[in-house]
């Protein structure tokens, strides 16, 4: 389990791979169609798909000379909901002291 989590994180760390996963959440696609949908050349899309396959996020099916890709499971699509910009508030940075004790109404006293 501990080896799989970093591999999954690395596989999803690239924006195009996240986009590929989101497209595949809509259904199985041949590599040429998938590449066109996400704006990549087929060879580049194939390289991204290999990373996703190695992380066991995407499964492959051959039909004659065509290669089809799909998500490895329903739980994979749920991973894309964790990405930034999906309705979660941003983290407060160091320039916002309200998270520090005694600041911004924090219950541990005054600054």
What does this structure look like?
The chain is of the alpha+beta class and 111 residues long. The protein has a domain of 75 residues: Arc Repressor Mutant, subunit A (Orthogonal Bundle). The chain is 41% helix and 13% strand. It is built from five helices and three strands, in the order H-H-E-H-H-E-E-H. It has a three-stranded antiparallel β-sheet with strand order 1-3-2. Helix 3 crosses helix 4. The longest helix has 13 residues. It is globular.
How are the elements arranged and paired?
Elements: H1 4-11, H2 15-24, E1 29-30, H3 31-38, H4 42-54, E2 58-63, E3 66-71, H5 74-79
Antiparallel strand pairs: 1-3, 2-3
Helix pairs in contact: 3-4
Q: What's the short story on this structure?
A:
With 111 residues, this protein is an alpha+beta fold.
Terminus-to-terminus distance? 43 Å
Largest beta-sheet characterization: 3 strands, antiparallel
Fraction of residues in H or I helices: 40-55%
The number of E-state strands comes to 3
CATH superfamily membership of the domain at 7-81, which one?
Answer: Winged helix-like DNA-binding domain superfamily/Winged helix DNA-binding domain
Just give the CATH class of the domain at 7-81.
Mainly Alpha
How many separate helices? 5
What key attributes describe this structure?
Arc Repressor Mutant, subunit A; 111 residues; alpha+beta; 3 strands
């Amino acid at each position: 389990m501990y080896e799989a989590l970093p591999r999954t994180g690395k596989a999803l760390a690239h924006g195009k791979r996240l986009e590929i996963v989101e497209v595949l959440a809509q259904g199985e696609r041949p590599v040429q169609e998938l590449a066109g949908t996400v704006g990549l050349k087929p060879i580049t899309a194939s390289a991204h798909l290999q990373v996703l396959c190695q992380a066991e996020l995407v499964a492959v099916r051959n039909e004659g000379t065509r290669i089809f890709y799909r998500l490895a499971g329903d739980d994979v699509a749920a991973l894309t909901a964790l990405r930034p910009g999906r309705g979660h508030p941003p983290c407060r940075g160091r320039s916002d002291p309200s998270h520090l004790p005694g600041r911004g109404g924090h219950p541990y006293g005054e600054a």
